Structure formats: structure tokens, C-alpha cells
């Protein structure tokens, strides 16, 4: 969903709103340096293990009830997706126990990291997904904060709302806000689609040479 290549793995990557993703564990296994930030981590691994089982069941039930809103080519089948999610949960729980310092109990729009302390920030299924609850100003503040801690790019996926899969009505105005703050925005297609119509990410970076 983020079109990550080998060059991206050379730097420090922050998974922002990481939840129970196995990304940090998988990145570590590939020799990359990665961190994740999420308020959930304050609960500790033992409590999270119980919560994640219930959350996984709820997510599967929601998808099964709205099957027409999803595309299965990437996963192959609901059963394969469920297995991948279970495996990711197991990898996450094992990794947070072994490497707790890689998991920051913090969330947007404020991150406890220094300016330009990571090379790439990834954020999935938070911004735009929950636009019904999080307004344009919250999005602007959150993206500005991720850009502050990044030496390189911020990548945000997907660009549609949860439920109806529609575009966010303030998307163009938000990009104008970010450009006014000296940031460069671009929409890029990615080789992943699960929620129907969700196959693009937003990249945000700092302008170079003073040019927008």
C-alpha cells in the first residue's frame, strides 16, 4: 500500500498509528530500522493480546457484512487475509515484547520525536479513513507534525473514507493548506487495493530550494 522499495529501507521508518501491524517486526527482519507510534501501546503487550483477538473478529465480521466494498485479487480469499492478519498480530506481539523501545505510546497530532529524526513516515487507515470524525484542521495539524519529524517523505494511505469509499470533500483544500506551509503534495497510485477504489496514496515532503 506504500509502494516501498529497497531504497526506503535504508533509513529510519516511522509507522504512525501503527496499531497491531507487523510492519516493524518485518522491517527489522529485513535489516531496516523502524519505529511505530500509537496510543494503544500504553496498555502493554498482555492487555493488547486480549484486545486484539476481539478486534480481529470484529474487523472480519464488518468485512463479511460488506463484501461488495472490497476487492480480493491481492489477498486471494477472505481466509488468506484472515491468516495474514493473525500472523501479523503474532509478529507484532512478539516484537513489542522483545523490543518495547521501538513502540512509542503516542498519537497524532503530536509526536514525541525531534525534528527530522526519521527518514520516512507511513500512516495507514487513519487520515481520510476517519474523515467523518477528524476534520480538515486536524488533518492539517497531523500531516504538518509528521512532516516535522521526517527528513524525507510522509506517505498516507488510503485517500477515501471508511464505509462509503468516497473521496474526502476537503482533500483539495487541505493540499492547498499544506502547500502554503511549504510542503509538496502528490497523489500516487500504488499496487494494492482492498477497499474498492482505494489504490492511491498521498505523499508529502518539504520543498527543496524554496520552490513549491
UniProtKB/TrEMBL annotation:
<dbReference type="InterPro" id="IPR013216">
    <property type="entry name" value="Methyltransf_11"/>
</dbReference>
<feature type="domain" description="Methyltransferase type 11">
    <location>
        <begin position="97"/>
        <end position="151"/>
    </location>
</feature>
<dbReference type="Pfam" id="PF08241">
    <property type="entry name" value="Methyltransf_11"/>
</dbReference>
<dbReference type="InterPro" id="IPR029063">
    <property type="entry name" value="SAM-dependent_MTases_sf"/>
</dbReference>
<protein>
    <recommendedName>
        <fullName>Methyltransferase type 11 domain-containing protein</fullName>
    </recommendedName>
</protein>
Amino acid at each position: 500500500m506504500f509502494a516501498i522499495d529497497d531504497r526506503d529501507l535504508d533509513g529510519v521508518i516511522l509507522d504512525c498509528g501503527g496499531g497491531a501491524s507487523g510492519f516493524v517486526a518485518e522491517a527489522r527482519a529485513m535489516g531496516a530500522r523502524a519505529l511505530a507510534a500509537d496510543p494503544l501501546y500504553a496498555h502493554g503487550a498482555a492487555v493488547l493480546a486480549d484486545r486484539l483477538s476481539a478486534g480481529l473478529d470484529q474487523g472480519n465480521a464488518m468485512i463479511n457484512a460488506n463484501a461488495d466494498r472490497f476487492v480480493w485479487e491481492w489477498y486471494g480469499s477472505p481466509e488468506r487475509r484472515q491468516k495474514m492478519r493473525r500472523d501479523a498480530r503474532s509478529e507484532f506481539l512478539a516484537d513489542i515484547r522483545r523490543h518495547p523501545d521501538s513502540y512509542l505510546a503516542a498519537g497524532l497530532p503530536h509526536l514525541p520525536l525531534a525534528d527530522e529524526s526519521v527518514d520516512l513516515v507511513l500512516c495507514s487507515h487513519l487520515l481520510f479513513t476517519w474523515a467523518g470524525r477528524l476534520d480538515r484542521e486536524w488533518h492539517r495539524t497531523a500531516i504538518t507534525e509528521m512532516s516535522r519529524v521526517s527528513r524525507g517523505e510522509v506517505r498516507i494511505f488510503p485517500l477515501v473514507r471508511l464505509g462509503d469509499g468516497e473521496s474526502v470533500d476537503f482533500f483539495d483544500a487541505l493540499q492547498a493548506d499544506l502547500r502554503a506551509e511549504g510542503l509538496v503534495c502528490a497523489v500516487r497510485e500504488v499496487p494494492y487495493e482492498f477497499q474498492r477504489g482505494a489504490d492511491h496514496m498521498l505523499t508529502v515532503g518539504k520543498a527543496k530550494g524554496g520552490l513549491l
